[in-house]
């Protein structure tokens, strides 16, 4: 009988890393645990990822691509209506925070484990955070705000906070709190621009 193809070995390693790193932490999960989860060999692992940090980078890049796809889709769906888009983002965040095993933002978690700002891991984190700021600038552009970069900076801060609150606080309340806070920031900026 022909076995079902489960994707490339590289993809399978990233998928296993995604599960293990997010659940247990980057430093707590060894390459051997990922190798064991996938059922491969060290030679195969190191053929795809010369170091464990290379796998950590690939894991974070995979997570970033997923987030970007979702946020870009929400912005497109909102069609310039900032409140509609923020509502979608808040609903998604609230749903995610209520999922069993939610441990907050994988990028904040990675930054906590990799203190060296010059590490490849921190560069991925920094790139993704810059992307978030640019996404929020795109979101508020239709409003013609005086300082969209400052508003985006505030919204990134709120996004960080909601990810932490979803993990440490009551996840059932984060969506509504995030939406109220975002509306307050945007409304304040609109009043200042008027």
TrEMBL record:
Any one GO molecular-function label of the UniProt entry: DNA binding
Keywords, alphabetical: DNA-binding, Transcription, Transcription regulation
Start-end of DNA-binding region: 30-49
InterPro entries in UniProt: Homeodomain-like_sf, HTH_TetR, Tet_transcr_reg_TetR-rel_C_sf
Highest taxon of the lineage: Bacteria
Residue intervals of the HTH tetR-type domain: 7-67
Record-given protein name: Transcriptional regulator, TetR family
């Amino acid at each position: 009988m022909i076995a079902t193809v489960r994707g490339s070995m590289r993809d399978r390693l990233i998928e296993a890393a995604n599960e293990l790193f997010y659940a247990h932490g980057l430093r707590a999960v060894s390459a051997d645990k990922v190798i064991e989860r996938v059922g491969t060999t060290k030679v195969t692992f190191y053929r795809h990822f010369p170091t464990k940090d290379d796998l950590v980078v690939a894991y974070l890049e995979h997570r970033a691509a997923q987030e970007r796809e979702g946020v870009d889709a929400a912005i497109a769906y909102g069609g310039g209506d900032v409140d509609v888009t923020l509502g979608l983002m808040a609903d998604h965040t609230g749903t995610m925070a209520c999922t069993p095993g939610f441990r907050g933002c994988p990028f904040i978690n990675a930054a906590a484990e990799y203190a060296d700002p010059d590490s490849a891991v921190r560069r991925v984190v920094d790139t993704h955070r810059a992307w978030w700021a640019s996404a929020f600038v795109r979101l508020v552009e239709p409003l013609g705000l005086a300082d969209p970069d400052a508003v985006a900076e505030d919204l990134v801060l709120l996004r960080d906070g909601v990810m932490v609150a979803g993990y440490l606080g009551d996840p059932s309340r984060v969506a509504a709190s995030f939406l109220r806070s975002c509306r307050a920031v945007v409304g304040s900026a609109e009043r200042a621009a008027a």
